[in-house]
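Entry for iron/sulfur cluster complex. Fields follow.
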Amino acid sequence: MNSDNISWIREHGKTAQGKNEYLDYLESGKKLSPAKALKAQCFQCMNSYLDGKDDCEIIDCPLYPYMPYRKDNVKAKRVMSEKQQDSLQKLVSLRSGTRRIANGSK
Ligand code: SF4
C-alpha cells in the first residue's frame, strides 16, 4: 500500500472501528490480533465506512457474525461450567475477605 492511500484513509475514512487497526497494519505490516484483524478487514471491505457505519448485511461472509456494526450485534452470554462457577465463588469470597482484613474489620 502506498503512502497516498494511507493519507487518503487518514483524511477521508470515517472514524470507525477498524480504522486505527487497518492503518496500523498498513503502516507497520505487523500481524494484528484476530479481533483487530477482523475490525480492520470490515473497515477495508466497507470502503472506510464512507456511506456510514452500517451493517453490511452480507450474511454469507464468514466474518459477518463478528461485524462491528451488525444491527443485531448481541454478544453471546458466556456459559460457565460448574467448576468455573465454583472457582469464581472462591475467588469472590477470597477477595471480599482480603478487603475486610485491609479495612481492619473481622
Ligand atoms: S462482515 Fe461484511 S464488512 Fe466484514 S468482511 Fe464480511 S462482508 Fe465485509
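NOTE: The radius of gyration is 21 Å.
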